[in-house]
C-alpha cells in the first residue's frame, strides 16, 4: 500500500500534457508522477528536469543514461526504479546482451571501457558516503568530456531523488515495469518488494 495515493492522470492538465514524455520513455505515466500531482508544481518541475537531464547533448546515449539510472537504483535498492530504468534502457535501444548482463557490466564483453567508467561513476556517486574519487575521475576523463560527465551526474542525481521518493512512498509499480523487472532482473533476485 503506497504512503500517498496517486491521483488520476487527468487531475492536472498541465502535468498530463508534460507527462506525455513518459509514454515514449516507459509506455505509461508513472505512478510516481501521479503522486507528485498532489502538489502540481512538484510534478511539473520534476517532468521538466527529467526532460532536461535525459536530453542528448553529446555521446551519452539514451540507452546508456538509462543503464546509469539502473546502476544508481540498484545501488540504493529501489525496486521500482530498477524496473523503470531497465524498461527505459530496452525502449531506448540498449543491446540485448547488455540488458541480459547488466549485473555483470564490469566484466561482460558487451560493455565498453567507456561504458564501464560511466557505470562505475554511477555506482560510486550513488553510495552514501559518496565514493567518487580521483580514480573515477581519471577513468571518466579517459573517455568522456566535461559536458558528458555533467549529463551523467544529472541522471545519477535525478535517480537519487526518484529512489528516495519511490522507496519512501512505496509507489505501486505498473504492469509494464513489472514485466521488464521479471524479464531482465528477476534471475538476480528482483521482486516488487513494497511496490505492490
Short key terms for the protein model shown above:
single chain, 196 residues, mainly alpha
Order of helices and strands: HHHHHHHHHHH
Structural class of the helix and strand makeup? mainly alpha
| Number of H/I helices | 11
Give the proportion of residues in helices.
55-70%
CA radius of gyration is 16 Å
Largest sheet: none
Inertia-based shape: globular
Give unreliable regions as ranges: none
Number of strands: 0
Strand content: under 5%
Straight-line distance between termini: 7 Å
Mean pLDDT: 96
At a glance:
With 196 residues, the chain is mainly alpha-helical.
Topology:
Elements: H1 13-18, H2 20-25, H3 31-36, H4 40-54, H5 62-76, H6 79-91, H7 96-100, H8 113-126, H9 134-143, H10 146-169, H11 175-184
Can you describe this structure?
The chain has 196 residues and is mainly alpha-helical. Helix 5 packs antiparallel against helix 6.
Amino acid at each position: 500500500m503506497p504512503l500517498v495515493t496517486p491521483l488520476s492522470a487527468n487531475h492536472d492538465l498541465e502535468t498530463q500534457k508534460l507527462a506525455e514524455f513518459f509514454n515514449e520513455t516507459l509506455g505509461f505515466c508513472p505512478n510516481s508522477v501521479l503522486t507528485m500531482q498532489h502538489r502540481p508544481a512538484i510534478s511539473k518541475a520534476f517532468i521538466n528536469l527529467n526532460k532536461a537531464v535525459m536530453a542528448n547533448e553529446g555521446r551519452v546515449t539514451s540507452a546508456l543514461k538509462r543503464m546509469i539510472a539502473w546502476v544508481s537504483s540498484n545501488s540504493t535498492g529501489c525496486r521500482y526504479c530498477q524496473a523503470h530504468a531497465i524498461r527505459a534502457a530496452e525502449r531506448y535501444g540498449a543491446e540485448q546482451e547488455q540488458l541480459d548482463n547488466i549485473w555483470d557490466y564490469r566484466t561482460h564483453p558487451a560493455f565498453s571501457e567507456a561504458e564501464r567508467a560511466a557505470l562505475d561513476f554511477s555506482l560510486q556517486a550513488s553510495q552514501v558516503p559518496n565514493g567518487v574519487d580521483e580514480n573515477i575521475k581519471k577513468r571518466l576523463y579517459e573517455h568522456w568530456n566535461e559536458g558528458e560527465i555533467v549529463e551523467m551526474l544529472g541522471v545519477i542525481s535525478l535517480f537519487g531523488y526518484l529512489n528516495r521518493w519511490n522507496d519512501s512512498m512505496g509507489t505501486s509499480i505498473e504492469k509494464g515495469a513489472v514485466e521488464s523487472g521479471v524479464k531482465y532482473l528477476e534471475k538476480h533476485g528482483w521482486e516488487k518488494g513494497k511496490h505492490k
